[in-house]
Structure prediction request, 291 residues.
Amino acid sequence: MNEASGPAYAELHCLSNFTFLRGASHPQELIARAAELGYTALALTDECSLSGVVRAHVAAKERGVKLIIGSELTLECGLALVVLATDRHGYGRLCRLITRGRRAAAKGGYRLTRNDLTETLAHCLILWLPGEAPRAEEARWLAAHFPGEVWIAVELLRGGADRERLAALAHLARAMGLPQVASGEVHMHVRSRRKLQDALTAIRLNMPIAEVAGALHPNGERYLRERGRLAKLYPPQLLEATVQIAQRCTFSLDELRYEYPSELVPPGQTPASHLRRLTEAGARRRWPRGV
Prediction:
């Protein structure tokens, strides 16, 4: 089986180097590799950022890959999720949410709460990232507030307990009434970038790389994996779910056009005549004896 064969698959959780000191590949490298692997789509989901989407969009058009725009977020309460924009309205909502989070924190950080999600998020799909110790309360809250728009992201990264994790998340999915979807938590386009990714982690933690082993990922599985390899790890329905989600995400940056803001002018005036009146009034205040 060559690397471009296997079941249809869309990667829905992928970080680029625009997630500073976490992602180890450029957006265009990720897109090119997704094309080589025959992926149905690739979601660029940098952490609380859309900084890489233009480069990804250009590369995706050149390569004929469907690009989904999203973002990875971790709330102050610890709830972690991936948000995917389905349409133009969802993209706008996601932009608003990211702006809110960045404005609420010092430069380089962000701060978001559950209230921010419920007040801002719409026209988006959500992948819940359950972490090492899944908290059922998080799944219950998401299911209650975003019915029909939440999936449990099942990320099997060959850590030694994939079978047990798959069974545990399946049990949780049945209990919560939530569907599951395969996901890769991608940090690099090829496995060989692992050394660079490890170095980035050491820089981020400000530690010598020889002393940071406990904070490194235990293996190099966070790359864009071959579809045949994924078929050996995931049940078919979880792979099929990635394609179904990708089909619901139809937004493209091609839809955006510059929109000149509406002029705020009094009734019966044009922008030019109103500007002239304001200018003349300002001149009288500044130079009461005449210009």
